[in-house]
Design brief:
heterodimer, B: mainly beta, 6-stranded mixed beta sheet, 4-stranded antiparallel beta sheet, globular
Chain lengths: 114, 113
Amino acid sequence: DAGITQSPRHKVTETGTPVTLRCHQTENHRYMYWYRQDPGHGLRLIHYSYGVKDTDKGEVSDGYSVSRSKTEDFLLTLESATSSQTSVYFCAISDFGGLGQPQHFGDGTRLSIL
Amino acid sequence: AQSVTQPDIHITVSEGASLELRCNYSYGATPYLFWYVQSPGQGLQLLLKYFSGDTLVQGIKGFEAEFKRSQSSFNLRKPSVHWSDAAEYFCAVGTNTGNQFYFGTGTSLTVIP
């Protein structure tokens, strides 16, 4: 299995608090992604990164920010969590020769905002 | 805009029976197509992908998929299903820029003995 670690795996927090999710890879892949998975929606892209300090928005980026200061780490931050951000979050990585399609996924972080 | 449709929310098959999961896409150019599988509590695993060339692609775990441009489809097949194939299956479409990538809403597969 590809070396992707998401932390934490589970988190419960309150509305209005900041939350940071971490994705760590040991594959030295260029592309990293954050998705959220919700029933009836499949997976939706939040943000992605195509290199250190290079990031861009995805389909559902409002309320989220990301940072990538090292190749191996991609952080997702909810500045002020809302109940609508309760979801399962997946990190993915890829080295598809520049195509950037996600190849390997982490095991997910289940986030509950009360 | 691109989109992916998986018409079947849930499918039940008997162990040993054949399987076909449907996927239709909407995209103006030649798409890059993918199938993923997700077991409960886990992330997605790439089963197979189509970029170009032979329209019948082979994947892991005995799965295959056929790209049919005329039908805008990329259906996943397996000749004989095993109980361990019970999972959620996602079809996805991407572009050659890699900056846009869309998943279908998934098909849940139940395998009965």
